[in-house]
Amino acid sequence: MGIINQIPHRKPLRLPQYNYGKPGYYFVTICTRERGMNILSSIAFSAGATPVGAIINRPSPGGSRTSVQPLHEIILTPWGIAVEGAIREIPRRYQNVTVEMFIIMPDHVHLLLELKRLEAAEGGRDDSPEVAGDGRQVAAPTAAGISTVIQQFKRAVSREVGQSIWQRGYYDHIIRNDEDLDATRQYIQNNPLQWLLNQEHDGHSP
């Protein structure tokens, strides 16, 4: 049984004394209320397909990142498109947060987030509001911890689709070391294939 199949059977765990605003990597899973259905996306085998709604970036020598093309295709639903838009807004809204990797599965979302330590720029940090192309004032990015980021993300999606589609809470894992980070990246990359294999094993068509 895959890890994702165990998620509904365990309670979200928080380390009560841990500072979730601490710099580092965090693996977050957010589930929809309805499980086992194509709420956010559908997945199909498709050799050489270009992934939709998934950033699969892997480190390469020199620190650059290259795309990894999986043997599956992810097709986003309208709700999934709203989710992708909200994910891409995270680093624009929070200057200390990078979305290292994400994938939008049919009934859950995986996020690998990096929280960075903010360094004051020489002469002070510029926190002045930005101005959009139409002249509207856009608030300057702020810093935030994991809980704030995820709550804002869920609210943004709910506003966009007109209703709440999420389970309460979310599941998080604090990345402890490079081995843990590599394993998490691999798990996210393999999750669509695991979903398809689980569907076949359970007798459902993808």
Task: Summarize the structure in short.
The protein is α+β, with helices and mostly antiparallel strands. 29% of the residues lie in helices and 24% in strands.
Can you walk me through this structure?
- The strands form four sheets. A five-stranded antiparallel β-sheet has the order 3-7-8-1-11, sandwiched between helices.
- The protein is built from four helices and eleven strands.
- It has helices at residues 3-6, 78-93, 146-161, 178-201, and strands at residues 24-31, 41-45, 54-55, 57-59, 65-67, 72-76, 97-104, 108-115, 130-131, 137-138, 171-174.
- Helix content is 29%, strand content 24%.
- Strand 4 (57-59) and strand 5 form a beta hairpin.
- The protein is an alpha+beta fold and 206 residues long.
- The chain is globular.
- Helix 2 runs antiparallel to helix 3.
